[in-house]
Amino acid sequence: IVGLNGSGKSTLLKVISGLTHPTLGQCIIRGKVAALIELGAGFHPELTGYENIMLRGLLLGLSKQEIEHIIPSIEEFSELGEFLNIPLKSYSSGMLVRLAFGIITSIHSDILLIDEVVSVGDSRFIEKAKSRITSLIHQTDIVVLSTHDHQMIKEFCNKIIRLEKGSIISYEEVDHVR
């Protein structure tokens, strides 16, 4: 999904994820949705990283056993180490991105929504996140990426929805990215 700031990209992803309801029409989703949209959604600043993994997993509908199963993947990807034992209020924004991205990308879903998050963090993390997305593209039925990064679009997408003032103005092949 592409468009200028304020065109409705994040709002559309929030509607697809169920975080908000459309003001007009309806959105019908078939399958399990995982969304990396608002980094703070589902996190509690007073809880530790591990406690927030559990909380976020429960909010996403996972059982305690399913959450415990994905913790090693989250630990490995996030590289937060002992920071997972301290409250999130001590985390930098980059650490929050690593934790949120690690959680969402460790959960199997039919539809994965990503809102510009891959462009956050140091260059090594961005490359690691892109590698993880590449892997997820082969495991997930649908990946919806909202970004201004034309290289990412060319690398990860085959279709583009172009928004303007909350309306779809085009649906096109990636070859038409300008």
**Which descriptor suits the 3D outline?**
globular
Number of helices: 6
Amino- and carboxy-terminal Cα gap:
13 Å
Largest sheet: 3 strands, parallel
Task: Report low-confidence residues grouped into runs of 5 or more.
Answer: none
Q: What do the pLDDT scores average to?
A: 87
The helical percent reads 25-40%
Radius of gyration: 16 Å
Strand ordering within the main sheet: 1-2-3
By secondary-structure content and strand pairing, the structural class works out as alpha/beta
Share in β-strands: 15-25%
| Order of SSEs | HEHHHEHEHEE
Number of beta-strand segments: 5
Notes on the protein architecture:
By secondary structure, this protein is α/β, with parallel strands linked by helices. Helices cover about 40% and strands about 15% of the residues. It contains six helices and five strands; from the N terminus they run αβαααβαβαββ. The protein has helices at about 10-15, 50-60, 65-80, 95-105, 125-140, 150-155, and strands spanning about 35, 110-115, 140-145, 160-165, 165-175. The strands form two sheets. The chain has a three-stranded parallel β-sheet with strand order 1-2-3. A two-stranded antiparallel ribbon has the order 4-5. Strand 4 (about 160-165) and strand 5 (about 165-175) form a beta hairpin. Helix 2 (about 50-60) crosses helix 3 and helix 3 packs across helix 4 (about 95-105). It starts with 8 loop residues before the first helix and ends in a 5-residue tail after the last strand.
